[in-house]
């Protein structure tokens, strides 16, 4: 149980780091400057990669504990908490509550970022089309669309982790 708790703490730390980066992404988007958008998106991707690796470790540890307490493969955190003795039942329930709160907040921020990205994309398109026509405008538009599209993909992936299944 102690090993699972350590992994859950690590996931909480990573989700907190992810929330920071998603909020930073939001500030960059709100500033209207695309200069740092790619870097912020890369930072989000880096945390997501580490989070994915940690989720694999957590899944292995949770399966081992689940088997030991008579649960089927891929047990939920709720099921593990319900089958555990104190103080682990309380500790696991607290981890679950904290992880749920963090994932909800991240999902809300990612949704807001997607809306900002879409608005920025529309504004850029309208400005470029209104200001000029021809090959140069089209090339600029394609660069902006690529930047916004890349950021949109990053934000959309923020909450697509196996953690959701584990927290059910």
Describe the structure.
The chain is 84% helix and 0% strand. The protein has 168 residues and is mainly α. The longest helix is centred in the middle third of the chain and has 44 residues, at 88-131. The chain is elongated, with a radius of gyration of 20 Å. The relative contact order is 0.16.
Helix proportion of residues, in percent?
Answer: over 70%
Low-pLDDT stretches are: none
Instruction: Tell me the series of helices and strands, N- to C-terminal.
Output: HHHHHH
Mind summarizing the main beta sheet? none
Cα distance, first to last residue?
19 Å
SS summary, helix count: 6
Tell me how many strands there are: 0
Q: What do the pLDDT scores average to? A: 81
Q: Any idea what the shape is?
A: elongated
Share of residues in strands: under 5%
- Output the radius of gyration: 20 Å
Q: Which structural class is indicated by helix and strand composition? A: mainly alpha
Oligomer: single chain
Which keywords apply here?
168 residues, mainly alpha
Brief characterization of the structure:
This protein has helices at 2-31, 37-68, 77-83, 88-131, 135-157, 163-167. By secondary structure, it is mainly α.
